[in-house]
Every structure is written in C-alpha cells, then in structure tokens.
C-alpha cells in the first residue's frame, strides 16, 4: 500500500505538472489537493472540504484584504499617482537619475496606501516610464526602477501579503505591518541610492534634467498630495494607537479614499465607480480563489503529516539554523520563479513555520523575511507579475529591457534578506515597541 508521504509527493508532482501546463494556479492547487485527499482517505477525505473551505474564507483577518484592495482601486482613479510623481520630481529632479528616484519615492508612498504591488506599477509606471523615455533615459533603467519599487507595496503596510500570512499563522497583522515598515523604507532608500550612483557613473543612461523648481513650487506640490499623507496617517495611526484593528482601519481608509477622490479630486463619476467596483471584485475573487484552493492543498499536506515531518527533519539537522534559513530562502527564490507570490506564501507557510519555530526563530521575523523573498518573486522572470504589468502599461518597452533593468534590484533585495537575517531587530524592534 502506498504511504501517505508518497501520496503527498505525487500530489506535489501533479501540482508542478499542472503549473507547467499553464493551468490557472487556483485550479492546479485545488485539483492536486483533492487528488491527494482521495489518495489518502478515499472519497471520505474530501467530505469536509466544503465546510473547512467556508470556515477558512470566513477568517476575520481576510476581511481586510478586499477593503485594502478597494482603497487602492479608489485611489487609482483619483489621479493621485500623477500628483505623487509630480511632487517627487520637484524634489528629486536636480539629482542624478532624478526621475528614477522620483518614481521610487512615489511608488513607496502609493504602496503605503494600496498594499498591492501591480497597482503601484500600473499607476506610477503609466506616468513615470514614458516621461523617462522622453527625456532620454535608457529603457532598462526606466522600467527597472518602477517594476522593482512597485514591489515595495508588498512590504510597506498595509500589505496584502502580511494579511494572508496572518490568516495562516495567527500572527498579529498590526505587528506584521510594523515589522515590514523599517525594512520597506530601507529598501526604498537603497533603491534610490542605486539609481543616483548608476546615473552618476553612467550619465548617458539617465540625463540630468535642466528644469529648476522654486521652494514655493515644491511646497505647493507637497500640499497637493497632503490628502494622501493624511490617509496614510489615518490608516496606520489608528492601528498603532490601538484605536482600530487593521480590518477596521481598512474600512475607515476605504471610506476616506472615497471622500478624497470625490471631494478633493472630483473623480467619482459613474464610469469610475464602475471601474472601481469591477476591478475590486475581480482582484478580490482572484485572491480568495487562491486562498481557498491553497487551503485544500494545505489540508492534504496536514493529513499526510508533511509539516510535522519537515519540522522534525529540520530540527534534527546538525547544521547551523542560519544555514537552514539560507537554504530555505534560496529554494523560495527558485519557487518564486514558477509560482505567483500569494500562492507560494499560502502553500509554504504552513509547512515552514513549524520548522522555523522549532529552530527557535520568531514567526513574525520569518514573516517579514518571507515577504521580502516574495518581493523578489514578483520581479523575477519568467513569472514575475510586476514585469508583465510594466509591459502592459508601456507596450513599447521590450521585455528583454525590462528583464535586464530588474537584475540590480534583485541583488538589492537579496542584500536586504542578508541584513534582516543578520540583524533580526530590523523586523522585530518596532513591533516590540508598539506591543
């Protein structure tokens, strides 16, 4: 009789085969998970799937996901992205690579409102990249800065990835948001530093702008984006002061986004409302379909005792715990080249977290490390969603240029993984401070 471990192994092989055949990821997860459950316990193995599935999707932490998606979609039609880029350009235009630095800065702020990386790439990329190309920037330089900085939305709160991680592990969303803040801002600073150094050493790739702006114009630009800054303070401030839970803050933020878009930017016509709700429903349904399918697959792994076996194996190793972490990170980078970030997080988290805790590591710290790793996944060919989003919003770009431009940022992300591993306080200090 075939063992449970062999059944689980065959289910994983089936999953990889379906992914290779370009089957939608939620279908691949559901089919391989159900096949594994039948292999483990016959038809009775799938009897509880519907009830378990409903229970998983009713997780309170997941309520925040559609609300933050709605918040981001409302802001996407407001024109706020244009104002953010304009304000950043007025402050950074005189430094080498100023437009690239402006794109990174505006992506960082927009990411702090939307929580979805492809939204940031689409909104900022649609304005920033054509402007850079018009001013003589090399296509790889222009596209790389936007595609990479768009991924910061995954790490800087409010982050959809942290919401999903919390739904699986039970780690506080507020603490995860706090844990991602310092690494996210550091990554943004490192990206801007790289852009400046690259433009300084290779000026032909990023010509310096001859435009000059007065201090009055710069302050006026900041005033124009003040509603966005107030929105960030409203959402994050209400969470960290304990006034609201992350889910309640998401609801308040979504309402505030409607107010800003309607009263300040005057962009809430019927056409835009339809766009907002259709896009929110589409993205939310896609995410929740993956969440549900991943739960079915995870349930199969749990029934086969895969998480327990992995935990026992890892804890029993004589190798350094940090070597184990390094191997895990490399494997996740490779998997991220094949599977989208949300699916990868939902599948590997239940397997890896027990092992990580067995080694004595903080699951909150690992959550931040995992999301930085997933940032690499969304900008890594051939599956990196940010790269194809960049191509879709600026069709004249060559994919080869986009791939070439992203490589230095992968090195920066890898360096951040090393820093968080060497100095866990980067991820844990702020959560401990607000706890």
TrEMBL record:
Q: Where is the TRAP C4-dicarboxylate transport system permease DctM subunit domain?
A: 12-426
Q: Where are the transmembrane segments?
A: 30-53, 60-81, 101-129, 141-164, 176-197, 221-243, 249-265, 277-302, 322-352, 364-385, 405-423
Which Pfam family, giving just one, matches this sequence?
A: DctM
User: Where are the coiled-coil regions?
Assistant: none
The record's InterPro entries line, in alphabetical order, gives: DctM, TRAP_DctM
Keywords, sorted A to Z: Cell inner membrane, Cell membrane, Membrane, Transmembrane, Transmembrane helix
- The lineage's top-level taxon is Bacteria
UniProt GO cellular component terms: plasma membrane
How does the record say this protein sits in the membrane? Multi-pass membrane protein
Places the protein is found: Cell inner membrane
> Which Gene Ontology molecular-function terms are recorded?
transmembrane transporter activity
Q: Is NAD given among the entry's keywords?
A: no
Q: What is this protein called?
A: Permease
Tell me the organism.
Streptomyces nanshensis
